[in-house]
Specification:
The chain is mainly α. It has a domain of 117 residues. The protein contains eight helices and no strands. The longest helix is centred in the middle third of the chain and has 61 residues. The radius of gyration is 44 Å and the shape is rod-shaped.
Length: 205
């Protein structure tokens, strides 16, 4: 920017008058300054609006990217949950087939599927939906649920080996508690009786 004050001081006469030469220099300086630094109001306003538009577009792009990422995560979560439910359903269906093949009384299937959560969680299915190592799991079913197999004396409310719970209700943790050697504290029959009683109390049949 031109130094207008210096121009005036250097050319101003003692009586305060400004000679024509100084006026000419001031006029030129003002013209040059206005030409270089002055921006027309409408152009200035338009430039501000352009800047604001760019800011808005940038923010919109960032918001869109955030929204897209959020929806992607939601979709992936939903997809994983759906797949997990389908897998669980397929495992339970396969386990029920083994119960049926082992001649386990059908009226107890729902109860036993609940009780066998850990076994079902550990099931591996092949591409056709069949259980891998099904023979091994079938033998376990016959051992664990022998009291529910048709043709074998069914476990009732009165049993010669009731759970040693001193009249209190046993939890699943109590039923499957192990000693320091890693062996179940309760024998198989007692565990079955206690588990059946626990599930009946919960309304399972």
């Amino acid at each position: 920017m031109a130094d207008f004050e210096s121009i005036i001081k250097n050319h101003c006469s003692e009586d305060g008058g400004i000679p024509a030469e100084a006026i000419a220099k001031l006029t030129k300086a003002i013209s040059t300054t206005v030409g270089n630094e002055f921006v027309e109001k409408t152009r200035y306003k338009a430039k501000l609006e352009e800047i604001e538009t760019l800011k808005t577009e940038k923010q919109t792009a960032e918001d869109s990217a955030t929204t897209a990422e959020s929806w992607k995560k939601k979709y992936e979560t939903l997809e994983a949950e759906t797949k997990a439910k389908e897998t669980r359903s397929a495992k339970e269906k396969a386990y029920r087939s083994l119960l049926e093949a082992a001649s386990v009384d059908g009226k107890h299937h729902n109860m036993l599927v609940k009780a066998a959560k850990e076994d079902i969680d550990g099931i591996e299915l092949d591409k056709d939906g069949n259980i891998k190592n099904a023979d091994k799991l079938t033998e376990k079913i016959k051992t664990d649920w022998s009291g529910f197999i048709v043709g074998v004396t069914e476990i009732g409310a009165n049993t010669p080996n009731p759970p040693a719970n001193n009249g209190s209700k046993m939890t699943k943790a109590d039923i499957y508690a192990k000693d320091d050697n890693g062996k179940y504290k309760l024998d198989t029959t007692t565990r079955q009786n206690a588990l059946a009683e626990m599930l009946r109390n919960e309304g399972g049949t």
